[in-house]
Amino acid sequence: MEIIPLTDEDRVSVRMLELACIREYVETIMEQNWEDFDQEVRQKLGASASGSFSHYRDAGLSFVAKESNKVVGFIFAQIIPWISGIEKAVWVENMGVDPEFRRMGIGYLLMRRLAEEGKKKGANVIHSSISPDNISSLLLHKKLNFLAEDRKIAYLDLSDI
Ligand SMILES: CC(C)(COP(=O)(O)OP(=O)(O)OC[C@H]1O[C@@H](n2cnc3c(N)ncnc32)[C@H](O)[C@@H]1OP(=O)(O)O)[C@@H](O)C(=O)NCCC(=O)NCCS
Question: Which of 136, 142, 145 to mutate to test the pocket of ligand 1 (most atoms within 8 A of CB)?
Answer without folding.
Answer: 136
